[in-house]
Each structure stands twice: as C-alpha cells, then as structure tokens.
Design the sequence.
C-alpha cells in the first residue's frame, strides 16, 4: 500500500496524464485507419488478424475515452484551477477520437461486405485518392494537437473541408449512376464514413485554432483575430 | 489549444509554502492567545465555564452546535486544546465537546450534497455519500460517549500516552514550538494591556478567536493549493482499492489539507457523478476523521501536557471508532444502510434533506442544550 501511495505521488499531474492518453487515442485511431485503408485499396489482404486487431484497438480507444472522462470529472471536482476550458475541450475531442475509431471499424465492415477491396471501376480510383488523402489528414491533426501548432491546425481543417467536399461529390455521382443496389449502398456508406472521419479529425484540429465555444466550427475571421 | 498546465510555477509554489508556514505560526500563536485571553478574565470565568460544561450532554451538544456553526472541527478542537492547556476547561469536560465536534464537522459535506438537488439520481448518491460520515460519527459517539462517561478510558489512555511522551499532566513540556510562539504572545498581551487596560482580557480573547479563524482559513487555502494537484492523482489511482488504502488516502489528504470537511466535501460530487461508490467513499471519510486530528495535535504543541492529552483523546476516539465499527461487516453496514435510506428518502422528498441538516446540526443541539439547562 505504501509503495502504491509513493508511486501515486510520483505520477505526473492528472491533466498531463489525460493529454497523453488523448494522444494515445489518436495514435490508436491512426493505427486502425492504416490497415483498413490498405485493405480497401488492395495493399493488404482482408484477414481474421486484421479484423481482430481493428476490433481490439477500437476497444482500447473506448477504454481510454472512459478513463479520460473519469479523470476529467475527478480533476474538475478536486483541483480545477484554471483548467476548466482545456478539460471541456478534452471532453469534447475524446468523443471525436472515439468516433474516428468507430468509423474505422465501420470502414472495415464495408470492406468485408465488398469482399476485401473496391475491386475495379471508376470508384476505386476516386475512393483510393480520398483514402490516401484522409491518411495524410491524420498527420497534421495529431501533430497540431500534440504541439498546439495553429498552422498545422489550419492545414488540417482546410484539408478536411476539401475531403468532405470530395465525399459529397462522390455521393452526388452515385445518385446519378446506375450501380447495383449492393454497391450503391456500400459506396455511399464508404463516402459517408470517410466524410465523418474527416469531420471528426477537423473537430480535433479546431481545438487548436478556435476558442472553446466555437469548437467543431471553423471561422476564418476568428482564426485571424486569435 | 492552450498550453498544458501542471508545470506549476516554482515561485508561486514557494510563495504558497511561505504563506502556509506564516499562517501555521499565527495559528499556534492564536491557540496560545485564546487560552491566555480567557485566563485573563480571572478564576470566576473559568469556574463558570467548567460548571457549564460539567454536564457532558451540554458539552456534547455545544461541540455539535459550535462546529456546525463554524463548519470546522479544527476550529473547535483547537479552541478546546487552547482552553484545556490554559486550565480554563478540564480534560474531563472537554472530551464530550471533542466528540460533538466530530459530529458537527459532517454538516459541511451534507450541505455540499444539496448542490445536486436538481438532479434526483445524482442527489440520491451525493446525499448518501455525505451522510455516511454523519451516521458513522453519530454511531461512534453513541458507543463511546456512554463508555467514556462510565469508564473514562479514552482520557486515561491519552494521559498514559502523554506521560510517556512529555511527563505528567500539568507539566509544561519544553516544546521548541512554544519557545517560538511565546515572544509573539507576550508582545500581544503586553501591548493590549498597556493600551486597553482592564479590557485587555476581552481584546486578547477576541483577537485570539479572530486570528484562529483567519489562520485556519489560510492554512487550509494554502495547503489546498499546494496539495490538491497531488491529491487528485492519489484519489484517481487509489480510490476503490482496499478499505485500508482508502483510509490511508483519506487520512493522508486530510492531514496535509488540515480539513476533513474539504476531503469529505470532495467525495460528495464524485459520488454524485457516479465516479465513486458509497463503499469506496466510506473508508476515505474514516481516514479523514483520523487525519483531521493533526490540527489539534499541532495546537497542543503551543500549550502544555493537558492540551496534548485532549488532542490525543481526539485521535484515540477516531481510531477506536474505526476499530470498533469498520472491521465487522454487520456494524460497517449500519452507517452505509442508514445513509442509503436517507439518500433514497431525500431524493424523493427534498424537504427531508433540509430537515435532517437543520434538525440534526442546529435545532436539536439548541433544544437539548436549553433542556439540559432547565432540568
């Protein structure tokens, strides 16, 4: 017991622990997205190992979210000091990170329904491009969060906007197309899931560039003021 | 995103520590001044005080009422230590007041639980978490108050321990703290006597009370600022472990912060939010009971062996309460059961919560004091 007490006293402040855990959540989300995108673009075979890994990582992310929430309540009750805004930001963006994890799982489910890959056609190229670009969106988002770099934050928000627009365009094309029901549904889901991933990553990036009450919304003018 | 806090500025920490030490010194001065001031009223005052508190029931209710009013058992126990050390209150008469202070101090967390009143489930949990401390302390008093009246065992054991530590009762033990405090006390007394003449006693006593309240307020404030960042890590890591760990956490956090009310009041919103269960909070509140006795022990350093004895009684009473109730599951369940039931009832009819607070901590003690006086 004494050892536990000493160890607890040596630990970093709770808020710093939560920030690290949030970074870990994002790292795990990246860890989920890569193999899923690789499966969809045909770089990797769909296998039970990939399936197992994705679901296990998702559980890890969910566990981290619950842990951070608990710590946030403890921190806000015991020693909030001037940490109320950052605590509320964390409460909000852990939800985004958790949703990214869930959506990666949903992408894999679409891949499984598609039998592994996008399998030829014009949509393979469109989705391949969006999937690769979304992959590059993770980097500035995670770095912007970890380093509080506003420049990277802006970059991530802009990139996410552009990708969301592309996803909407794909859905418009699907509406005009004469695809079979199965593929139409799966491609629509794929476009929606990718758009949601971009939106949640954008939400995380807004925490760097926007004040608390404007979290999840990007306003260029406000960004200039701050 | 804003830069992360937690990297506390060392200068602020040093300032807080210096502030803590200064107010700790003023606290010790105030305890001594309190005793000296009331002693200056003369033998008549001491006799009246002793005769008023000679009825142990009055002593008990005075302890409950005084502590409920100031919402700090540390204030009551330190005052009692100061009175006992200066001889204006006997150890025998002081014991029930100390026991009453233990009940009175629980009012703060119960009032804190009222903050959750708008959300029924949250309020139910918060009320139960707050009142488990109340019921435990009432149960402990119900057992040890008659036992102490019949045998005086707490006083005897405390006397024996004190004798081992500093010598026999009435001996002025050579505490270095006392040597440091003495010049300030003498300065205040001589200045007041030269300025106020025959009113000096009253001014010294009032000054002692005010200084005690102010110094305790700032001690708790600085200690909170210094320790809460660590306390939240300890709570996060160790809450919900074994009962012993919970008690150690409660005792440690309270001993550092110098206020059981702060520790127990922190537990209430945690319970309300559903972060901690009643059985996890219970041992922490018991630890807080023990941790808070450090204030009276510190106060006793400014007095003589009699002050030390009453401070040890406070410590022994709380340890005995834990040893008597906590290890036995059926006994341990009594305060938890009562608190849960009260939580259920209060969540349904909120007026019962207000009734419990006003009745138990204010109305009942006042009525019983008046009744004891009349009889």
Sequence:
């Amino acid at each position: 017991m004494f050892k536990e007490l000493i160890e607890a006293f040596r630990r970093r402040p709770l808020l710093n622990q939560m920030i690290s855990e949030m970074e870990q959540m994002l790292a795990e989300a990246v860890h989920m997205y890569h193999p899923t995108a690789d499966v969809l673009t045909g770089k990797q075979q769909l296998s039970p190992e990939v399936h197992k890994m994705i679901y296990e990582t998702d559980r890890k992310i969910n566990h981290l979210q619950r842990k951070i929430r608990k710590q946030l309540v403890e921190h806000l009750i015991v020693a909030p000091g001037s940490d109320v805004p950052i605590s509320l930001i964390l409460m909000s963006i852990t939800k985004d990170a958790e949703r990214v994890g869930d959506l990666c799982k949903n992408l894999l489910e679409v891949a499984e329904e598609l039998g592994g890959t996008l399998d030829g056609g014009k949509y393979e190229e469109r989705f391949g491009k969006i999937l690769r670009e979304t992959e590059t969106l993770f980097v500035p988002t995670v770095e912007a969060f970890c380093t509080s770099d506003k420049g990277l934050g802006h970059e991530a928000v802009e990139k996410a906007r552009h990708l969301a627009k592309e996803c909407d365009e794909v859905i418009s094309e699907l509406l005009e197309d004469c695809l079979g029901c199965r593929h139409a549904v799966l491609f629509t889901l794929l476009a929606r899931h990718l758009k949601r991933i971009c939106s949640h990553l954008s939400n995380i990036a807004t925490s760097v560039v926007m004040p608390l009450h404007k979290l999840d919304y990007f306003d260029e003018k406000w960004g200039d003021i701050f | 995103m804003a830069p992360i806090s937690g990297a506390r500025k060392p200068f602020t920490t040093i300032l807080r520590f210096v502030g803590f030490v200064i107010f700790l010194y003023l606290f010790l001065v105030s305890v001594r001044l309190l005793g000296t001031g009331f002693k200056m009223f003369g033998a008549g005052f001491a006799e009246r005080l002793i005769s008023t508190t000679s009825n142990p029931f009055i002593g008990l209710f005075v302890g409950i009422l005084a502590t409920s009013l100031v919402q700090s058992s540390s204030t009551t126990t330190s005052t009692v230590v100061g009175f006992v050390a200066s001889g204006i209150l006997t150890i025998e008469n002081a014991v029930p007041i100390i026991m009453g202070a233990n009940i009175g101090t629980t009012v703060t967390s119960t009032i804190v639980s009222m903050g959750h009143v708008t959300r029924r489930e949250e309020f139910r949990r918060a009320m139960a978490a707050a009142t488990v401390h109340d019921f435990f302390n009432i149960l402990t008093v119900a057992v040890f108050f008659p036992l102490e009246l019949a045998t005086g065992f707490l006083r005897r054991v405390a006397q024996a321990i004190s004798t081992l530590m500093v010598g026999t009762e009435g001996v002025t033990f050579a505490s270095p703290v006392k040597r440091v405090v003495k010049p300030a006390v003498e300065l205040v007394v001589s200045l007041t006597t030269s300025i106020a003449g025959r009113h000096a006693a009253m001014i010294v006593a009032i000054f002692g009370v005010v200084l005690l309240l102010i110094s305790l307020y700032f001690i708790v404030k600085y200690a909170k600022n210094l320790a809460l960042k660590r306390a939240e890590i300890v709570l996060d890591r160790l809450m919900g472990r074994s009962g012993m760990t919970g008690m150690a956490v409660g005792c440690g956090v309270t001993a550092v912060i110098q206020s059981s009310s702060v520790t127990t009041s922190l537990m209430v919103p945690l319970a309300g939010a559903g972060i901690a269960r009643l059985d996890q909070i219970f041992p922490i509140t018991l630890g807080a009971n023990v941790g808070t006795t450090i204030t009276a022990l510190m106060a006793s350093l400014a007095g003589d062996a009699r002050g030390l004895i009453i401070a040890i009684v406070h410590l022994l009473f709380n340890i005995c309460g834990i040893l008597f109730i906590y290890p036995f599951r059926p006994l341990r369940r009594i305060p938890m059961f009562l608190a849960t039931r009260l939580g259920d009832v209060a969540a349904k009819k909120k007026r019962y919560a207000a009734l419990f607070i006003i009745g138990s901590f204010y109305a009942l003690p006042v009525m019983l004091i008046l009744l004891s006086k009349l009889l």
In short: Residues 2-221 of chain A form a domain with the Methane Monooxygenase Hydroxylase; Chain G, domain 1 fold (CATH 1.20.58.220).
